[in-house]
Design brief:
Glutaredoxin; binds glutathione; Glutathione S-transferase Yfyf (Class Pi), Chain A, domain 2; 225 residues; four-stranded mixed β-sheet; 8% strand; single chain
Amino acid sequence: MTTKLYLNYSSPFCRSVLFVAKHLGIDLHEVNVDLVDKQQLRPEFLKLNPRHTLPTLEDEGVVIWESRAIIQYLCNKYGRNSQLYPTDPAERAKVDMVLDFDLGTLAPALKAVRITKLVTNNSTKGAKPTEQQLTTLKDSLTVLDSMIGKNGGYSAGKHLTIADLSLIPQFLTVTTEELADYMHVRHWYSEITAKEMPYFDEINSMAVKSIEDRTRRLTERADKS
Ligand SMILES: N[C@@H](CCC(=O)N[C@@H](CS)C(=O)NCC(=O)O)C(=O)O
């Protein structure tokens, strides 16, 4: 039976699942879902995931969406001996804590600023993030920076975990200048991606292509309307 991942490489949450799968040596059958054409809203996809988000995993009849739940599942099922998701209750709780902090706080803060600055349609393209959005992001990055500093280079615990692999893809579109005040975050990103993720460049270059393609098509559509 194949393990299917519905994904789009432009999504950081999809790439976190790809990173974990690569790390654990899981062979995923990738099914691309075109977000510009809104294929995620097709009835057959809504049957799988009523929340119509990517990534969505289908594994032996089990359907899971929400990237952090997916990577936890992959570790529980296929990576029992891996340190990516430690089994010790205290160590695991630290990983879960960072994943929850990411889901509830950091990811929305990064998304708010990124979406305002970059993408989606004519009305927001090139707009400046609000002071409130920037303050929320700064506060979240300060928390992440101090956690990485305390842990000696990792977001949760003393070695690479799924917390790092969940966070890292979200920094693809963040510049080093934007991270000037967050020394530990900068170091964490460059060290881990270079030394502990041999699959990083390959997946990242597909992401860059996908983001460029998505931006170009959205711009063309906005210009026509
Ligand atoms: N919290 C979710 C966020 C997923 C998400 O927002 N995915 C976006 C792409 S980055 C998506 O699928 N958007 C399409 C939609 O909401 O219709 C996760 O971690 O899986």
